[in-house]
Specification:
Length: 299
C-alpha cells in the first residue's frame, strides 16, 4: 500500500511529460488514385511523329491512348513502350498486336502534382512516336520589349489569360531577386488587382531599384502558368542623352567654323593693310609714264 502513492505520482509525471511534447501538424491524407476522376485522351498517329498538347487544371487519372496505322510492312507483333521526359518508364514495354490494321497502346497515369506534368511519349517499335505535352493553360499574351517608366512615376504591369481558357483560381506576382523569386503582396507601393482572366500590378513612386524582371503566375489546382515582364526605370534625362550628344557635336562644329572664318578674315585684313603701307605701290601710274617721257626728251 505504501507503493501506491509513488505509482500514482510516477503515472502523473509521465502523463505530464507526454502532454508537454510539441505535436507536429496533422497531415491530411493524400487523395488516392481511385478517388480521382479519370480523363481520357485518344490520339491517332498516321505518320511517324506527332505532338499533342493536353491541358490539365486538377489532379486526375489520365488515360493516354495512341493509335498507329503502321507502315507498309505490318508486323504481327511489335513492341510498344512509354517514356517520361525522354527516359523510358520502367516495366512499360508490352507486345502490341494489330487490331483492324492498327496498333493500340494505352496507359493510365496518376497526375496529382506539378512534377507529374511534362512530356509523355508512346513509342511503337522505335519506328513511330507520339508526344503528349501535359501542362496547365499557358498565358498567351507575352511582351518581349521592356516596359519603360520614369523615376518618381508609377507603372502598371498587366498579365492576361486568353478568354477561351479556364479562369485561374488566383494570380500571384513575383520579382526576380538574384537567383530567387520574391513574391509581392499588397503594400504601400504595390497594388494588385485580379479580375477573372486578367491581373494588374501597380508600382507607385518607382525608382531605378525597381528595374528588373517581374513574373505573373496564373494558379490552377495542379500547377501555375507563368509569364515574365521586364521593367526599366530611367531618369527624365535618359531620353535626352542622344539629343544632348548631337547638340554638343553641333556646337563644336559651329565653333570650329566660326574660329576658322575669323582667322581667315583677319588674314585677309592683314594682307590688305600690308599692300596699303607699301609706297611703291601708292605712286600713280600716269606720273610714272610722264617722268619717263621727260627723261627721254632731255636725252
Amino acid at each position: 500500500m505504501k507503493l501506491l502513492p509513488i505509482n500514482i505520482l510516477l503515472t502523473l509525471a509521465t502523463c505530464r511529460l507526454t502532454s508537454s511534447e510539441t505535436v507536429g501538424p496533422t497531415l491530411m491524407p493524400l487523395t488516392s488514385a481511385s478517388a480521382l476522376p479519370t480523363n481520357f485522351k485518344r490520339v491517332h498517329l498516321t505518320g511517324k511523329n506527332k505532338v499533342e498538347n493536353v491541358e490539365l487544371l486538377n489532379p486526375a487519372n489520365l488515360s493516354l491512348e495512341c493509335i498507329w496505322t503502321g507502315n507498309q510492312n505490318k508486323q504481327p507483333n511489335i513492341t510498344g513502350f512509354w517514356r517520361k521526359g525522354g527516359e523510358e518508364i520502367q516495366d512499360s514495354r508490352v507486345p502490341v498486336a494489330p487490331e483492324n490494321q492498327q496498333y493500340r497502346l494505352q496507359r493510365v497515369f496518376n497526375i496529382v502534382s506539378e512534377e507529374h506534368l511534362g512530356n509523355y511519349t508512346c513509342v511503337f517499335d522505335n519506328e513511330a512516336e507520339l508526344d503528349f505535352i501535359l501542362a496547365v493553360p499557358r498565358i498567351g499574351e507575352k511582351r518581349e520589349k521592356p516596359i519603360v517608366s520614369y523615376v518618381g512615376d508609377f507603372v502598371v504591369l498587366t498579365c492576361k489569360m486568353e478568354e477561351t481558357k479556364p479562369v485561374p483560381r488566383t494570380w500571384n506576382w513575383f520579382k526576380t531577386n538574384g537567383t530567387d523569386k520574391e513574391q509581392l503582396f499588397e503594400a504601400q507601393r504595390y497594388d494588385i488587382t485580379v479580375i477573372g482572366h486578367k491581373t494588374k500590378l501597380k508600382v507607385k513612386d518607382v525608382s531605378e531599384a525597381d528595374s528588373g524582371v517581374y513574373h505573373c503566375a496564373a494558379v490552377y489546382n495542379i500547377s501555375a502558368s507563368t509569364s515574365k515582364l521586364h521593367l526599366k526605370v530611367i531618369t527624365i534625362w535618359e531620353p535626352l542623352k542622344p539629343f544632348l550628344g548631337i547638340l554638343v557635336e553641333v556646337v563644336i562644329l559651329v565653333t570650329a567654323i566660326l574660329i576658322y572664318e575669323r582667322s581667315h578674315s583677319k588674314k585677309k585684313e592683314a594682307e590688305a593693310n600690308g599692300l596699303n603701307a607699301d609706297p611703291k605701290n601708292t605712286q600713280p601710274q600716269g606720273e610714272d609714264e610722264e617722268s619717263t617721257s621727260v627723261r627721254q626728251r632731255k636725252t
